[in-house]
Amino acid sequence: MIDFGDFKGMAAKLQVEEIVALAEENDIEPASLRAVIAVEAAGSGFDSAGRPKILFEPHIFHRLLAGDERQTAIDAGIAYPKWGMQPYPKGSDAQYSRLEAAMEINQPIALKSASWGMGQIMGSNHSLAGYGDVETFVFACMDSEAKHVAMMVSFIKSAKLLGAIQNRDWAAFARGYNGPAYAKNAYDVKLAEAYERFSN
Q1: Dihedrals phi, psi of 12, to nearest 5 degrees
Q2: Does residue 159 fall inside a structural domain?
Q3: What Å distances lie between residue 184 and 171, 178, 190, CA to CA?
Q4: Sign of CA pseudo-dihedral 25, 27, 31, 35
Q5: pTM over 0.85
Q6: Domain that includes residue 69, residue range
Q7: By CB neighbour count within 10 A (0-12 exposed, 13-18 middle, 19+ buried), where does 156 fall?
Q8: Do residues 31 and 159 make contact, with C-beta atoms less than 8 angstroms apart?
Q9: Where are the strands (E) in the chain, listed by range?
Q10: Nearest in space to 115 (alpha carbons), one of 106, 126, 107, 123
Q11: What is the dihedral of CA 107, 112, 113, 117, to 10 degrees?
Q12: 46, exposed or middle or buried, with CB in 10 Å at 0-12, 13-18, 19+?
């Protein structure tokens, strides 16, 4: 197993000029990119302990595992077949506790089964975010929020969502970024409201 320690790296905070530079390099309006950041991670990529914000997804862990490992995870209460079968535990410590338990079963799959940082990009999407393996992706998440935003931009382009964010088609963007159930959490509405806030 690779040692991630306590998941604390440099944890460098994002500067507004870094957002503007990344947005303009990729022909995205800065207010649009800031809206995605605000909605996806409440404006911050790190928790109060300096770890990347994560959300461990038991249904993804279940899907990616097989055989005895899957059964072990089910028995431990950290894997189930469908999203929403159980409420998420509250607080970052609880999320990391789940992640660490999952890592004992299968480290790479556990890392792929959490969403990470400002953009809440799934570890399983590390290649879309610009990283060849999930471990390098996680270490980058520990480094800086600027890397989080660069991952978001890479994912947006890889997932062919650049047109949606450029046109402020928030429903299409939310469908591609958050999945088909985006409307349950009103992601499109939240993005539109955040955009208006930042553009003003």
Answers
A1: -70, 135
A2: yes
A3: 12, 11, 12
A4: negative
A5: yes
A6: 16-30+49-164+176-184
A7: buried
A8: no
A9: 54-56, 114-116, 121-122
A10: 123
A11: 110
A12: buried
**What are the distances in angstroms from CA 160 to CA 156, 172, 175?**
6, 11, 12
With tokens 């600027």, the residue in question is 146
Tokens of 184: 């349950």
* Structural contact between residues 12 and 142, judged by C-beta atoms closer than 8 angstroms: no
Per-residue confidence of the chain (200 residues) as pLDDT tens digits?
A: 899 999 999 999 999 899 999 999 999 999 999 998 888 767 689 999 999 999 999 999 999 999 999 999 999 999 999 877 788 889 999 999 999 999 999 999 999 999 999 888 999 999 999 999 999 999 999 999 999 999 999 999 999 999 999 999 999 999 998 888 888 889 999 999 999 999 98
The answer to whether residue 140 is domain-embedded is: yes
Q: Report helix, strand or coil for 126.
A: coil
Evaluate whether residue 116 is within a structural domain: yes
The amino acid that residue 10 corresponds to is M
Q: Give the number of other Cβ atoms within 10 Å of residue 147's Cβ.
A: 26
Tally of structural domains, the chain: 1
Alpha carbon distances (Å) from 46 to 13, 61, 183: 8, 23, 26
